[in-house]
Task: structure prediction
Amino acid sequence: MNDVWNYLSPVEILFGDGALARLPERVDTAAVLLVTDPHLAAAGITERVRGLLPDREVVVFADVEPNPSVETINRCGRLAGEHKIGCVVGVGGGSSLDTAKAAALVAATGADVAEYLDGKRKVEKHSIPVIAVPTTAGTGSEVTPVSVITWTARHCKQPLVSPYLFPALAIVDPELTYSMPATVTAATGMDALSHGLEAYWSRGAMPVTDALAIGCITRVLPFLGRAVRNGDDREARREMALASLLGGLAFALPKTAAVHACSFPLTSRFGVPHGTACALTLAAFVEFNYPALQGKMDVLFQCCGVRSLGEFADAVRALHAQVGLPTRLSQCGVRAEDMDTLVAESFHPNMRNNPKEVTPHDLTDIYRRLL
Ligand SMILES: NC(=O)c1ccc[n+]([C@@H]2O[C@H](COP(=O)([O-])OP(=O)(O)OC[C@H]3O[C@@H](n4cnc5c(N)ncnc54)[C@H](O)[C@@H]3O)[C@@H](O)[C@H]2O)c1
Ligand SMILES: [Fe+2]
Result:
């Protein structure tokens, strides 16, 4: 833990059932760009937002794919540039919110987002304000300064991070998450748990993010299973939306660590959805990191009502299995002969945030046990 710490969240948060109805009070520009994905557009989100903003021009970009690419973000940004957009409203899962955040930057600068990924350009000022409206409960992207982008030319996923990428406003309306199918609820919920745990053990952790992380973890453990079993369980949906928000606030500055580093090649090479990829290694890193945390994990265990490392790791594994996600790498198409590539590609910069150094040997061992 750092001796001097500094926490800032510039994102205004509007939270609660029905909060989306307050969108019109918060849009004061003539033209807005709605960024969403085709599935949500087909389910009626475009009409709903148009209905809330009848006297504004609502330009729609509904082409966001899971794990949005450089090309999609550039296309979305150019559309905003052509329409003199004053505000970008992202409605959807992390893919839509991340597209909205990076497209606002592209619209304001006219740049190719790949130039930011390879460091040729730096994000130097605020672009068009973004209102982020999550419809999944997992990524916390509505409160983070991060846009995770698939860098097609390099076959990898790369987080673009800048304080100028924080949305201006997050509207977190748990009712928007009711329509998530069980598999999406499960994967995004395990992503939230990964954010809580990785924020808590990140080298950049600070007391205020520890409190947020505990708020996240102590909600996911009892409520994720309920939300997966019954998508209409209002209390579980609300607690999961809050867990996701707290997880986002927790990791926004400390950043994530080994679990997320490992998730990137699992997604870009093997097509595993983000939360499903994080869930695969989570319990293994609880055990791996424990000795480096000098009692800090015991405080967390007390907050969660468990007495030991074994009990906590078992609880994470039981939840993982209970929500029906794959628990073995082989279920996700990884073969023994893929091991060396997977290990090599997992050494993303986030790995350096891990509280205990991870060597290629350690990671091979973890992956082999999960095969
Ligand atoms: N920026 C950040 O801080 C951050 C943090 C974690 C993850 N991410 C990124 O977010 C992306 C993953 O986002 P995600 O897990 O939210 O999934 P997603 O946005 O990719 O959506 C997954 C699927 O769920 C569907 N969906 C979303 N909401 C729904 C709803 N309410 N009802 C029915 N279907 C719904 C979508 O249409 C899509 O088919 C990844 O690219 C990941 O890297 C970003
Ligand atoms: Fe994540």
In short: The first strand starts at residue 12 and ends at 15. Residues 207-229 form the longest helix (23 residues).
